[in-house]
Amino acid sequence: MSIISEQKTDSLDVNRIRQDFPVLNTLVHKKPLVYLDNGATTQKPRIVIEKLNELYQSKNSSIHRGVHTLSENMTGEYENAREIVRKFINARSSNEIVFTSGATGSINAIAFSFGEKFIKEGDEIIISEMEHHSNIVPWQMLCERKKAKLRIIPFDENGELMQHEFELLFTKKTRLLALTQASNSLGTLNPVKEMIRFAHDHEVPVMIDGAQAIQHGHVDVQDLNCDFYVFSGHKVFGPTGIGVLYGKEAMLDVLPPYQGGGDMVDCVKFEKTTYNILPFKFEAGTSNYTGAIALGTALQYVDSIGIDAIVKYEKSLLSYAEEKLKKIEGLDIYGTAENKISVLSFLIQGLHPYDTGMILDKMGIAVRTGTHCTQPVMDHFKIAGTIRASMVFYNTFEELDRLVEGLVKAKEMLS
Ligand code: PLP
User: Fold this and answer.
1) Rounded distance, CA 33 to CA 43, Å?
2) Could you give the domains of the chain?
3) pLDDT value at 158 more than 80
4) pTM for the full model?
5) Which of 217, 252, 256, 363 is deepest in the core (most CB within 10 A)?
6) How far apart are CA 391 and CA 377, in angstroms?
7) Ligand 1 center–CA 313 separation, angstroms
8) Is the shortest distance between the CB of 232 and ligand 1 below 6 Å?
């Protein structure tokens, strides 16, 4: 390990933390895995894996519908998970926490439900140029249905949203701002609190896509004062197929359900059906209760490490990686904002990102190549895609050294 890394790992016992993640011991092509694809999905600590095992091995039962012991216990654990999520993002009430299938599921739910209630012909919705496809396409679909219009906040050469242009986009027809807190391909951390304040000054509600932010820093939805906040469990060390839709209670109260089925109803008659109270109104059908409970375990695990320590350590990983990558001749970094999560997108001149990614894979190094579901970001830079290394608290400085060595080798082989 380099000297820098020894100096900078003080606050976090990374070697001990790594032992919590069984997959990090995997060999890929007979080389120890270097997992730098955390932006796509994070690995799971043993307690999350064991929690899922325990639930299926000895506790499984559908929630909310039984008087028998297993069902009551599982319901208790599920509602406890809701409370863990509430605390983690500091929501005012657990009625404001809806479990969904993921960030994509949450955004589609809002686009449908909010769209049904509030969007009509000629209305405008603001998103940004750096959104993930999941925060573009649902709004495009809504705009098509309602003949509404999408307005786009541009970003500058560093990958920072242009605040003057943002302010100019607001008109009397603006109905919603849907914005990512952190860009998955540029790494930019947007000044969402200030942007929410500006939108509210214009009486426009705001949805924040926290899919790439919640695993990298504190989230306090009351402090942000956003109207909606969404994220995915699998990107914050929890299972796949589970996510969260936070909405202010007053907002969720007036929105119609977006799916019908069991659990979301109060009374069903052929003449008329009435709906359940919050948050169940938005949880139709048998939910992913094991996923929700294991997500609760994952958030408790993150809390046990300490978000302040995570932020500090990831900052040092990012600046170490940046410094080392910049020394590779012909390497261009895309996304050089002042405030960033630990994500680095780059290209080496003359090298195709897929070829580079495949060579890195042969060395056991997992990075992502391509558009990262942000095609408009690639169009902005007139490139087909990038190589993306995304780091979290279990990554080490040694792994970053291996990435750099791998890139130098790939360059020699492909040039
Ligand atoms: N928003 C952002 C910023 C993302 O990075 C992603 C996934 O990469 C999503 C939304 C969608 O998340 P999911 O596929 O888990 O629903």
Assistant:
1) 12
2) 14-43+306-414 (3.90.1150.10), 50-303 (3.40.640.10)
3) yes
4) 0.96
5) 252
6) 20
7) 23
8) yes
